[in-house]
Structure formats: C-alpha cells, structure tokens
Amino acid sequence: MEIYIYDGSRSSNLNVPEIAQYAREQLRKAIVEVRRDIVQRSPQKLPEAARAFARAKVLNPMKKIEDREPLYGEVSYEENRMSDAKNMTFGNIYDGFVIQEHFGNYIPKEELTLRSIHIVLTNQLLATFDEGDLRYHIRSGIFGIPSLISLTGLVEGPARPREFYLLKQSMGPRWDGAAMAQSAEEFRDRMVDHNDPRLTEIMKGYVMQAAFYNLTGAPFCEDVNCRLFNAHWQEEMIKAQITSPYEFCPEHEKALKALHQGKGGEGSPPEAGAQPKADAPKEQPVAQVRGRT
Ligand SMILES: [Zn+2]
Fold first, then answer.
1. Residue 283 above 70 pLDDT?
2. Taking all residues of the chain, what is their mean pLDDT, rounded to a whole number?
3. Whole-number Cα distances in Å, 135 to 100, 101, 171
4. From the CA of 210, how far away is ligand 1's center (Å)?
5. Which of 13, 114, 148, 240 has its CB surrounded by the most CB atoms within 10 Å?
6. Contact predicate 155/41, CB 8 Å
7. Which phi and psi (to 5°) does residue 37 adopt?
8. Is residue 286 within a helix (H) or strand (E), and if so which, with residue range?
9. Which of 142-151, 188-197, 246-255 shows the lowest per-residue confidence on average (mean pLDDT)?
C-alpha cells in the first residue's frame, strides 16, 4: 500500500514529515511519501487550476454554485495565490467536491490503483452544500480519490465552544484580533486557532480517517476517544486527537492489526468522490471567514 501526502498546507506550524511518520507507524505495511503541493508539482496546469478554483468559489453560502465563466480578476487572483508558495492567504470558500474532482486529474494513471491512497493537504477553506438545510458547511475533510484535508477547515469547520460565540456576540464592535487571541488562550482546552502548534497532532487523526476511508469505506468511529471520531465541536476534536487515553478504539486497533498481518482491509476503494452522507460531518454553516494562517 502506498500513501501519497501532497503538502499544500503552507504552514510552518504543520510538521508534515511527522504526520507521515505517524501514518507509517500505524499502517506498517504502507509506504508513505510526502510530495509537494499537488498544483505546484504540475506547474503547466497552473492556469487550469486557477480557473477551477475561480469556478468553485462559493459566492453565496445559501446557494449551490452554478457553472459560470469566472472573471479575469478572479482567475488571476487564484493564479497569483497558487504560484507563490509563500502566499498564505485564505478566506474564499470553495466547493470541495468541485476541487476534489479537479485534483483527480493530477493523479498519474499508474497510481490510480486499489493500493494507492492520495491525500491532499490544503490551506484553503472547502465547503459542501447540504441538501438538508440548503446551505454550505465548511469541512475539515472530504474523502475520496483524492481525499482533501483543509488545515484552515480544522479550525473553521468544527464549532467552537458556545461560550466563545456568546462572548463574541456580547463584545459586538469591540471584538478584534486581540480579543480573538485572548479568547483562544482562555478556551485553549476547548478550541484551536490558526497558529496552533497542536494542529500537527490533530492532522494525524484526519490522515488516518482518509486512509480508513480508502481502505474500508468507513472513515469514522462512534468512540469519542478514537482518532476516527467525527468531531462536530473543536472540544471533541481535541479530545479524540490529543487528550484521549488511547489512539484507536479496540475495534480499530484490531482492524489495524489485521492490516499488519495482511488480513483483508484492502478491498475495493469506494467510487471517486463518493461521500458517506449519513456520517458526513455537520460542521459550521459558512459565515464570513477572512484571515491568514
Ligand atoms: Zn474507533
């Protein structure tokens, strides 16, 4: 089994080699390779990628995006952002399924095998349209071929503590960067911030969820202490990924052991882009998110 991690996180906070090493230790039969950003690996595709992102941009969170011809300025914004590896801007929200489908074109044919898992890390915000409440929700992970995990989505996707929102609301116009930093410190045990050094530890669990999606079609677990728990709150995410007394629940420990011993686990991966709807994370409705990592 090969796992390819494409590092488009653009964050000095995220230790991707450490995450790869973790996956190697957990999936002992896997060869885990860290690659550079998926678009930067194929610079000739940059104009095409810029157009795809511009088209995938969510203009109205209450409305599913429609196929449209993006404006020149939108495309050049994306091209500039993507071509400059030091550019850490984020804030636009993109339809994650459209981006996933586009990135599917970057995977070499010979690596589209049942034994290959492709995981794209991005610093951009991805969302999916929920047909239930008819709006976009920011997502931390969108699993498939390839799987996408958004670093900024880990922070903006799962909900922060209720008290945080109350505080923010009560401060009204006095809410600023300093107030945000102070509350991030105050609620440290229950929420993460964009510069949080714990994001490396958290990302390990999401990479494992992506691996389980490809291996078994079931990325999530009901156990709040398991790395595969589908956290809807940041507090739950911290518990499952950091403060839990164990890495995986007994059931998933057993599944990993079976993989080491070569018993099953390498069945047919689910169809590209397929998403387990019933289990899909119900994350924060899209609001205005602007900032830099
Ligand atoms: Zn589990």
1. no
2. 90
3. 19, 20, 27
4. 13
5. 148
6. no
7. -45, 135
8. none
9. 188-197
d(CA 219, CA 117): 13
Start-to-end CA span in the chain (Å): 33
Please say if the pLDDT value at position 181 is more than 90. no
| Extents of the domains making up the chain | 2-292
d(CA 52, CA 170): 40
Nearest 5°: the CA angle 75, 288, 97 is 55
In the reported structure, the alpha carbon of residue 37 is separated from the centroid of ligand 1 by a whole-number distance in angstroms of 30
Quote the ligand 1 centre to 277 CA distance (angstroms). 19
pLDDT of residue 169 exceeding 70, the answer is yes
- What does the pLDDT look like over 232-243, one tens digit per residue? 999 999 999 999
Superfamily name with CATH number, domain 2-292: Collagenase (Catalytic Domain) (3.40.390.10)
> Per-residue DSSP letters for 73-86?
HHHHHHHHHHH-TT
**pLDDT, position 284:** 58
Q: For the chain, what is the radius of gyration of the CA atoms?
A: 19
- Rounded distance from Cα 70 to ligand 1 centre (Å): 43
| pLDDT tens digit sequence for 115-144 | 899 999 999 999 999 999 999 999 999 999
Mean predicted confidence (pLDDT) in 90-117: 95
Q: Determine the distance separating the centroid of ligand 1 and the alpha carbon of 260, expressed in angstroms.
A: 17
Distance 250 CA to ligand 1 centre (A): 7
Cα 223 to averaged position of ligand 1 atoms, centre (Å): 6
Ligand 1 center to 205 CA (angstroms): 11
How many angstroms separate the Cα of 291 from the Cα of each of 36, 73, 149, 156? 23, 20, 18, 11
